[in-house]
Give the backbone structure.
Amino acid sequence: MNSFGKIFRLTSFGESHGVAIGGVIDGCPAGLKIDIKLIQADLDRRKPGQSHITTSRQESDCVEILSGIFNGVTTGTPIGFMIKNKDQHSGDYSNLKDLYRPSHADFTYDQKYGVRDYRGGGRSSARETIARVVAGSVAKQMLAGLGIKIQAFVSRVGEIELEKSYRDLDLDSTESNIVRCPDSETAGRMIQRIEEAGRNHDTVGGVITGVVSGVPAGWGEPVFNKLHADLGFAMLGINAVKGFEYGSGFEGTKLSGSQHNDIFIPTGEGIKTLTNHSGGVQGGISNGEDIYWKVAFKPIATLLKEQNTVDVHGNEAVVNVQGRHDPCVLPRAVPIVEAMAALVLADHCLLSRVSKL
Amino acid sequence: MNSFGKIFRLTSFGESHGVAIGGVIDGCPAGLKIDIKLIQADLDRRKPGQSHITTSRQESDCVEILSGIFNGVTTGTPIGFMIKNKDQHSGDYSNLKDLYRPSHADFTYDQKYGVRDYRGGGRSSARETIARVVAGSVAKQMLAGLGIKIQAFVSRVGEIELEKSYRDLDLDSTESNIVRCPDSETAGRMIQRIEEAGRNHDTVGGVITGVVSGVPAGWGEPVFNKLHADLGFAMLGINAVKGFEYGSGFEGTKLSGSQHNDIFIPTGEGIKTLTNHSGGVQGGISNGEDIYWKVAFKPIATLLKEQNTVDVHGNEAVVNVQGRHDPCVLPRAVPIVEAMAALVLADHCLLSRVSKL
Amino acid sequence: MNSFGKIFRLTSFGESHGVAIGGVIDGCPAGLKIDIKLIQADLDRRKPGQSHITTSRQESDCVEILSGIFNGVTTGTPIGFMIKNKDQHSGDYSNLKDLYRPSHADFTYDQKYGVRDYRGGGRSSARETIARVVAGSVAKQMLAGLGIKIQAFVSRVGEIELEKSYRDLDLDSTESNIVRCPDSETAGRMIQRIEEAGRNHDTVGGVITGVVSGVPAGWGEPVFNKLHADLGFAMLGINAVKGFEYGSGFEGTKLSGSQHNDIFIPTGEGIKTLTNHSGGVQGGISNGEDIYWKVAFKPIATLLKEQNTVDVHGNEAVVNVQGRHDPCVLPRAVPIVEAMAALVLADHCLLSRVSKL
Amino acid sequence: MNSFGKIFRLTSFGESHGVAIGGVIDGCPAGLKIDIKLIQADLDRRKPGQSHITTSRQESDCVEILSGIFNGVTTGTPIGFMIKNKDQHSGDYSNLKDLYRPSHADFTYDQKYGVRDYRGGGRSSARETIARVVAGSVAKQMLAGLGIKIQAFVSRVGEIELEKSYRDLDLDSTESNIVRCPDSETAGRMIQRIEEAGRNHDTVGGVITGVVSGVPAGWGEPVFNKLHADLGFAMLGINAVKGFEYGSGFEGTKLSGSQHNDIFIPTGEGIKTLTNHSGGVQGGISNGEDIYWKVAFKPIATLLKEQNTVDVHGNEAVVNVQGRHDPCVLPRAVPIVEAMAALVLADHCLLSRVSKL
């Protein structure tokens, strides 16, 4: 199922080595001024080849808007868009046609569909996230007009963890280094860890933290579409993600209730909370505090060394992937995390308009 | 939004102190033999008052089927059901009418809807999960016919953790103790920890682990409705949940790719994997291995002691909840985790029928 | 599929001779004052036994609200409701268990589901529309607050046609006669026609006209959910409906474009049209003029006389239905037509809030 | 809302004079062999300039498949496609920027969205139906493999009516004349009627009949998504449509029940009906007989002569459209009617797979 969202809704298409990746954004309100350069900037943060710790594939990933924007403003009609695939070495993959790469989607796609576009993982490739970044960038522009800011950063690579809270960091500095960690010392160690993985023809996982400020109280649709449930659903749908937690998360479950509860206090700007273990969401609805969460990314399954596996006939085989691949997905996944959060929030922004008479 | 699922779909209704909790199961295939006693058994596992470590409220929670089942068999038409609310002491809550309890949904519901049923938390009460347990029990009966078994258990209470893998446990023994931990020694320590919290008029959180065996390869709907994304969405929608991880989860992100990849091996029963860091899901589609995950539950926000807070007018206030409340939600949440997993799997079971020509 | 609507959404359940008919209204905005007596009044317009030209079955059809309304006001949470089935003579139907009644749903339900609740048609009975009337009555109350009035009336019974336009009728007089035709002379002839059908143990069909005034310009969701397309979908889902047209309808297709176009004119109250062949909808979006349409109802298939048919084994058989049945569904279908229109309009009212920034 | 269908689902985009018209087909089963030439052939039946009774605009309308098909076979992933807009004379429309054309969507789009792409009607242009024809053609190819044949034809132009039943016509001859009426004598008179309208700079409406053979018993999803309700919804969403009826339709409501009922008879090929007033659908579910229906198309609103109107400021104005326009939409709408029927049936085909255990 390739649609995301209830009102503000992305439907995406495209395989790694097909003609194009693209999508349709339906439900974007009319009257939104769109800056294509901001969309392209987010795509550039996602694109391969942007630094020596990412794959050296050069994908230009230029977005073409096909509909829905007239004289720079959304018209309320669907926004079709497309990014043509270029510089794709399909030949790299012909030797994988009959093999199931370990911990990839090759086997499961064949089991589900009985047929598979084996070139670069086809639809299961992370190139698919290009469409998410485009749609998320449109959503960001809508939310920015409401004073809402969405920022993600790499908070762990392998065992190298950024120990500080996001509150003690300058999130605007995230883009100042290639690993997208807003603490230069930790960033340096993360980069070394990724370089080490690359030298070993191996890969490394980690954690991305997301933070949203400026969301007013009242967004979220219990009982099933709680704001954090939709956010978690969005994150878990990103390639390689293995876990999601928000607010105090897994660690917070070790606290007692009297430690964990966020005490309400009256302030000049309305009701606030002393602490924010709730992560800005209570009962599935935003309470006006910062929303923050963590996303776990597994180490990428594509290794540039021999691995045992089976072929499509069920026989033992050896797979040896060539080509240009990332040793660590985290730096390029930062804009994807932001994009998916933006889609969730844009949707709930619109849904919040129909809660009351 | 109070509907869950795409084909096999629950729509639920009901407040804690309203007339009834109930729902409609739409899309359950015709021809399924339903044993009402099994539904009631799951409700009894969720009900309060079942042991000294749960609330002493006596809620009988008897399910009444209103439609959709004829001569014990589903007819393909919607299954309406209802559980009448009884033994509800609305008076307990009249003093909470003008207060926002810390880390509850009182404040956010008021912000969203401008009106609130303050009796026992209204719709935000965990009594709402009764409808999930009923629908999940129907889903379980459908899945059982396919050889699919869903089992959850308490794997951590506060800091008391069950260190063993689910593979080294007898999950059929989970129901043999009141905390629902399939290791009697750990269960004993967990019970002590809950008793301690109760004595302190405090609460404690923890973790539930879920395991599903018997799911064939090929279930899941990428790119957005990956099997684990729908599962995470389901879990995050349960009251008090703060996090979700599947397979190797957050810890697995510390491994290198060569450690984390699950090597395929040919076996007499088809293609299997040597390890299962993937948690039975690859590329968002089941691969035939066990599916397992963890869910983080925060300590319950309702404390039987004084807390500072604000009232609905924004003034400082003190809240002092009376009544009968759980010091720990974990034991009663086990059937809820199972129910939500069952709903996800029943839905994907049906969706898997339309993947191929 | 038993849910209707996108934001304002009814999910219904219940069979003719089951425990209850009911439903869940999800997405009704919070803060709406609900008058249960108005709901009951609409149910009473639908109920059997209300006059000598309808079936003499006495169904009290009392609505019970189970959730979602607190102190007389909607809370934004789902409104569960139920109407218990009483005075049902299941025995009347035991002889139909093995027969397929002509032009009923007996055969097709068996083909689709492989199992069937044969008592009174089960889910295919028009008793199912009770849930629509309840939800529609809630929607009407929301729309009334916006100055929107929904009125339907019987405009043809068999060949007896009300020739006047709705503009030349006093629609408030519709309830003044038992056939619900706002022209007393025509009503008299219609009643005679229905009495004649009853005497012949036969049935008769006809047409209901619906009119809505007060809808502002701007409601409707092209390209697929055009306002008239959703309205037509709603009408075609009512039992026994065979056709739908709006505005100039089928007859209007005989006009030339220069005759058919509705010329815009400036007025003190904004832009209006000289004529209204468009039926208040242009390009799928309301233009502020009256919305009007016609719905064709076939003669009821249940005849109180012998008919040839086949049994469930495929053998020739004779069916001879006993019991109390309407010779004409039209008078009782008037509130159903209104209810379905109300559901469509309430939904589009809410959707119209998210069209623009 | 620009998505159609529940499982087999088209999401479309594009304006008349934008970069491209296109869409995404999600939920098409894997393993379907696609013949692009058949898609192009359906587009050619819809395209302008195909005869002297249609507009002389030359739109090549070449479909480009962007994803979802690999080696000529669907992979189960979304099928993205696009048709570039060419030969669009935007200049033709600059004089319409400030005018509301009578009975067009100009006024209502402005009311709804507050902004409008005025070039050629933007999204409200019938060029949008290109995406429907592409998706419908894919659906047709899926259905053809099941022995299902979908055929539409022009059965009335203005007052010129084809009196014969579809059963007495050779529907394969529909394409033998430019008006797409399978009776050459009537076709001749229809063509004259359209020529006459064109000479008068006027337009003419009419009726299209659709027929589907080969649908097995058991498709349709009561109570709301009855097969004919989804079909009617599909038809009413096509530009210029004012009405829909199936089976005996409006005329059938004049019959008595004993005349109208379709008597079941046992045959060597299973249970059939003697007559087919039901139009192949009973209780919202197909019964195995032919499905047939009629669709009313109003005369096109674009006239090549002066008309009074108002401008966007609410002042009186005169509109005088230039350019190349059809005097009658019927011949080109035939493949659109077929396409929308195919989408409905493909969706219900897949839904029918989940009705029973």
User: Anything to note?
Assistant: Residues 330-351 of chain D form the longest helix (22 residues). The CA atoms of residues 305 and 320 of chain D lie 6 Å apart. Chain D has a mean pLDDT of 95. Chain D touches chain C through 107 residues (CB under 8 Å).
